[in-house]
Amino acid sequence: MSSRLVGVGVGPGDPELVTVKGVNALREADVVVVPVMDTMERGRAEATVLHYVPGEKVVRVVFALNERSDRGRREAAWDAAGARVAELLREYDAVAFATIGDPNVYSTFTYLAQTIAELVPGTVVETVPGITAMQDLAARSGAVLTEGTEPLTLVPVTAGATVLKEALAGPGTVVAYKFGRQAHEVAVALRETGRIEDAVWGSALGLTEESIRPAADLDGAPLPYLSTLIAPARREGGRGGKL
pLDDT tens-digit profile of 204-242? Predict the structure, then answer.
């Protein structure tokens, strides 16, 4: 029998936003892997998982999530993490991996699954979708992501503020992930493209330190790394104008 590795999206932080299917997958797994930084502090995924499974079922694995500059060190950490999960898959029938947001949207799970395919051939890989930060921010702020024929563009600002500015110059709604460290550049891009007035940003969604503010309030000060921005499409013509 092949072992199963299940990537479970546990949402952006609010434990009430984990789907029923996600909770079932966490509880049915023999062990639940949660990614942690090398500082070993509890992350959002682990905090959410502990609302649904006992701590003795949780296995912390270091993924060097805070390593941004040294690619060699980052890949060595991925290899070590993959080797640890491979050990678990040889020992257990079902291993769940909890990831914030969705396992198929900018998730560490993607790299893990690729590594496991090489280390433990025949492993069945599955994913359970999760609610994303842009969905949660839209709900909490009242920002509408799309209407009618509008496109939706998702940009990780780790790719650079220029990529964001190009997206803002186009049609439709633009969502920016991980922009906290480039908050000043993002504010400049929003102002230069005339998109700042309706834009909103948020961080720590669903947590006690949650912050949701108009993008017009951005003053250039650094924000939490996992901050999310929504710049809604320009909408004219009233209800159904984009149909």
Answer: 998 999 999 999 998 878 899 889 999 999 877 666 655
Rounded Cα distance between 79 and 69, Å, is 17
Contact between residue 150 and residue 29 where contact means Cβ atoms under 8 Å apart = no
Look at residues 100, 102, 94, 126 and name the one whose alpha carbon lies nearest to residue 113.
126
pLDDT band at 3; cut points 50, 70, 90: very high
Average confidence (pLDDT) over 85-93 = 97
Amino acid, res. 209: E
- Which tokens hold the place of 22? 């996600």
Nearest-angstrom CA–CA distance, 243 and 241: 6
Buried b vs exposed e over 43-58: b needs ≥16 C-beta within 10 Å? bbbbebbbebbeeebb
Residue 190 to residues 71, 160, 167, 205, 218, Cα–Cα distance (Å): 31, 14, 10, 22, 10
Chain centre to alpha carbon of residue 164? 18
And the tokens for 97? 């991996």
Give the residue from 125, 139, 131, 136 showing the smallest Cα distance to 102: 131
Q: Single out the residue of 4, 5, 68, 3 nearest to residue 38, CA to CA.
A: 68
Do 99 and 110 form a contact (C-beta atoms < 8 A)? no
Q: What distance in Å separates the CA atoms of residue 115 and residue 109, rounded to the nearest whole number?
A: 10
Pairing of strands 124-128, 4-9: parallel
